[in-house]
Write a structure and sequence with these properties.
Strand order of the largest sheet of chain A: 1-2-3-4-5-6-7-8
Radius of gyration of chain A: 27 Å
Helix content of chain A: 25-40%
Strand content of chain A: 15-25%
Largest sheet of chain A: 8 strands, parallel, barrel
Oligomer: homodimer
Largest interface: A-B, 118 and 120 residues
Number of helices of chain A: 18
Amino acid sequence: MTTSISIFDTTLRDGTQGEGISLTAEDKLKIALKLDALGVHYIEGGNPGSNGKDIEFFKRARELNLQAKLTAFGSTRRKNSTCEQDVNLKHLIESGARAATLVGKTWDFHVHTALQTTLEENLAMIYESIAYVKRHGLEAIFDSEHFFDGYKANPDYAIAALAKAKEAGADWIVLCDTNGGTLPTEIHDIVSRVTSLIQAPIGIHTHNDCELAVANSLAAVNAGARQVQGTINGYGERCGNANLVSILPNLQLKMGYSCISDEQLKSLTSVARYVGEIANVSLPVNQPYVGTAAFAHKGGIHVSAILKDSKTYEHISPELVGNKQRVLVSELAGQSNIVSKAQELGLEVSEVAKSRELIDRIKKLEHEGYQFEGADASLELLLREAFGDSEPMFTVDSFKIHCEQPSVSGNTDMLTEAIVKLRVGGQQVYTVAEGNGPVNALDNALRKALAPFYPAIANIHLSDYKVRVLDEKDTTAAKVRVLIESSDFHDTWSTVGVSSNVIEASWEALVDSIRYALLSMTRSESVPEAIPESLGLVNH
Amino acid sequence: MTTSISIFDTTLRDGTQGEGISLTAEDKLKIALKLDALGVHYIEGGNPGSNGKDIEFFKRARELNLQAKLTAFGSTRRKNSTCEQDVNLKHLIESGARAATLVGKTWDFHVHTALQTTLEENLAMIYESIAYVKRHGLEAIFDSEHFFDGYKANPDYAIAALAKAKEAGADWIVLCDTNGGTLPTEIHDIVSRVTSLIQAPIGIHTHNDCELAVANSLAAVNAGARQVQGTINGYGERCGNANLVSILPNLQLKMGYSCISDEQLKSLTSVARYVGEIANVSLPVNQPYVGTAAFAHKGGIHVSAILKDSKTYEHISPELVGNKQRVLVSELAGQSNIVSKAQELGLEVSEVAKSRELIDRIKKLEHEGYQFEGADASLELLLREAFGDSEPMFTVDSFKIHCEQPSVSGNTDMLTEAIVKLRVGGQQVYTVAEGNGPVNALDNALRKALAPFYPAIANIHLSDYKVRVLDEKDTTAAKVRVLIESSDFHDTWSTVGVSSNVIEASWEALVDSIRYALLSMTRSESVPEAIPESLGLVNH
């Protein structure tokens, strides 16, 4: 029987301390749903005491009915005060979270320098704060800040602080390497010492300042820790937190611990990429386990060996974490994949020749920078077209953009107009529209042209727009990939466009998005009804 | 007295196996000089048997008179043949390198599956190949490919292979975790076993497939390994090689080994960034030790503690590795941050009123969607302006974009032209330029207008361009934030622009970027000398 490890995700709290990571309440809700599906046991949503955004998140998160324990973060009470008087603790209790993480000091130096109080008062702060949240029926997790530095400086005091937390009823005592400066051997020794002295469930929380956060987490588990705190893709302050995306498969596939189900582990790659997309941080291609290059084989010898037996140059089978091997053939180009995808769409795929042709086309497009993993709708259009199951709905003759800032000093708004020439059915439609940006203007002109023919187009809106530079050489002249996400009341779909010209790439994704929408409308009798403004997740 | 560890850099060989990493001979020579100054002991330059580019590199590298031992990479001889008949070994000898790395098999499974020969023949290949390069007066380093997998599968054979290499006179026997799948505890156990059985200097070569390459290298050193092989920034196939940029300070500052001088360690940050520039890969902001965020502190408790004593939230002093502390001016916590930032820039901040005014301005801008933590240069311009320490260099009257796709079906390229009207000094400048996108066209027009006044502008190039949608409601009409990163031969800086119009936001960031560059040029007397075409750096 395998030992299980509790996975505590703090992407939404500590993760947002990372430079350049900022998430709206909306973003956080989307990520929380993914984390819950992945099967983590705790989702730390934020610090309701610190800002209104987090209060809103907790309010709305209650409606998600998560399996994971929704957790709120806060500090032990202020010095020389009481918990009842502490506004942050009050917010924490009122957040509606099922568990509370309370961070407290265990390093005497910090008690003196940062808190500027006495060692005794700090122990009282820990005891009373833990007891307070327990009294209010929350599970209590004690994050012992700087524990390892504290233990090295004054082991007796560091241990005394943990003992206080346990005495007050803490459900978990988590040892934090807050500054990320501790080595795996030290972690192993100190955690072993703690587990021998403190009879409570122990957790580990590490940072990556020495590029050792993953190793330190594993060392702690080897020494008896049973909860691991970390973030998706290792987001976090300075060099980041421990990366759960690497820790999960290491614990489960290599060390024989159980954390999540095998099925959930298979979603690891898509979760990591999804969170990266929402945070608008492109995943490093070489990210362990989930990067697009993690199982990509370049050099000749490797490839020939791989073809003989993939075990020769792969430490695990990529499928276990939902990733794919990439050799000469790109992920989509395997004929079997194409055929199964086409059958999934109910297409007639008897003609082998056609699917070959299609594979070559997709290979070519991917080589040019298209990426269909994030653009299901564009892929479906491609397939339907290849298998002769789509009318284009409309064709584009030409389009133009004029963009002008007549007087910078005068603070006048920019004028942007788009002119598009289309053919719908037999008719030519020639329309012009303004917008407060080129893409908005094109979108408006396109809708204006199509509305008379397809009134239901009114229900479609763009829900996300992302631009990625593909080639960093001479960036403004490089190719860009635009990903557009669109929604109606029923559905959300993504399309892609690639060009050295961001306007052209955006237009391409825009046209795909509308085409896909019109196709599914004509396919399903039921034209989507208008969307109530109130709905959070759909019509953001 | 401290034990010294030999540092073997393979950035120029294994590092170039990384996806998206490709280096010209020119690039490699520049990097070799930096590595030599950093003080690594071996520089593996490439595989002269595999391609002409590497042969050229070795030819030209001889003229550099490196302190480090220039090393050439190759494989043990072909099966059922002789070393004298082996073309690759011939190239290796003729390369003029002082040392040779020979990779050979130690995993029986690989001997059968990949080499498809007998276990005996493989031992002969190892023995004869090592003896051959020794006979030709080269130092011999045996890279035992897949050693750890091999040891787990068949310890006796794996050890026998190492013994053969030693018997043939190998100067170093390097244990490779080629697939990157081994855990630190396993590395420690197996290396301890090897050092007890093989009386020869042992090295370690790890890969990062489990995000454990750094930890595995340290574990091997703890078990007696005395050479560490790795690459700058961890470049390498799949998930990369062990990152020397993290290993060096870990060994030297935390574990008490000596590798390079303290002065050389202070150049670590600039070396890591330089190699990133040449490889044209932007360094992750959160890269341990050397990233721009590695010692960056975001608002609140941390900052106030840092100001009391930086030891509170820093595991080492950033200066030891040539990095520096940054207080991120995000959700601009109080006056103290602004004032300290201004003082850092050597500005006269006596007027409290002014800094108050400035804080309100910055708060307002951040509320509008600006984000200065990722845009130091825009923040600096703002501060200098507020404290009356900047001439605008040029002012913008107006700008226009025309963007046209005359015939979609005709597959004609889009035409994009930008027209800008500026004032430089007293003069009005009115220029037009084409580009393969609106931002590129604006960039070209701006340079065209300014080049006659500031020729050094030719040395500046955009190195990254990011677009982030701020308000997800009705996205194409939402506000966007554009972040632009620019570089010259000396430096890298970031600027920000926000608008509902992506063109306007890009223009704003572009103008800030050029203004900042011109300001620093005029501030430092030495206008950066024009850079010869031949140097990859500027004109990528």
